[in-house]
Amino acid sequence: MTRRLKLMTGLSTLAAVSALTLAGCGGEGEGEVDGEQGHDMPAAAGEGETEGGDIAVSDVGESAGGESEGGSVSADPATDDVAYLHLLGLTRGHLIAFHELYNSGAIEMALMHVKHPKSELYTSLAPAFSARKKPGLADELSNLVDASNAGADVEEPYAAVVRGLNAHTPDTSVSNILLAVSEIVRTAADEFDIGVEDDGMISNAHEYQDAYGFLIASREILSGVRTTDINATEAVNLAQEQIDLALSSFESLTVEKTEGSASTLYGAAARIEIAGRGL
Predict the structure, then answer these.
(1) From residue 140, how far is each of 22, 54, 98 by CA, in Å?
(2) Is 52 exposed, middle or buried (0-12, 13-18, 19+ CB in 10 A)?
(3) pLDDT in tens, 222-274
(4) Residues 213, 192: contact at Cβ < 8 Å?
């Protein structure tokens, strides 16, 4: 199966599930969120080390959108919460992959992931931080890179980056959070598609590991959403189920072969996007 065919599979899934998912997620677009909602970004997958940093969720409304064909967010992260959360989520995903690999002893693999948030993503995030009057994370990321390169204990510099990410998250709607998560999952699907051959052999471990990190980051984003709106709750629950399904494609970050499929991840991204647009 070629990459183009896999991409088309994801797009076909989006069309096929639209009516059903919208019906289940309040597709009228009228539900509002009452009370406060939070979004926690924990220190590592499954460790529950979140230190503050809730995303306050405003009333559900229309997303700013701004997504280009192929799933990448083209809007300006300085002003668009979906694009901004997408980049924050990718940063968090790289760090999740780094943290798990580093602690498992796969140091060389881990070092590749810790360098990417600053070298690849920070160029886009820095102007957004400035426009949003946020201090940025340059020092925290540098300290983490230095500690990891030295083979030192990375827990404190890692926790400092997580605290920084939490402090930089915006007040936004459940709809925007879901749309951002859908983009993170779609990016994970792209990475999985690059890293895994048609027969399931992993030809690019780094991209495969990125995909895992992005999915864990998405799951943790969703786990912190709090809302009393029934439509928003159902949409978030659906998205969480889709993330769990996508994660079934991963047994370990260092395996040589997987039974998973990029189409599973593309399908999850499509369903989550529909859920977000239905609010």
Answers:
(1) 41, 19, 15
(2) exposed
(3) 887 888 999 999 999 999 999 999 999 898 899 999 999 999 999 999 999 99
(4) no
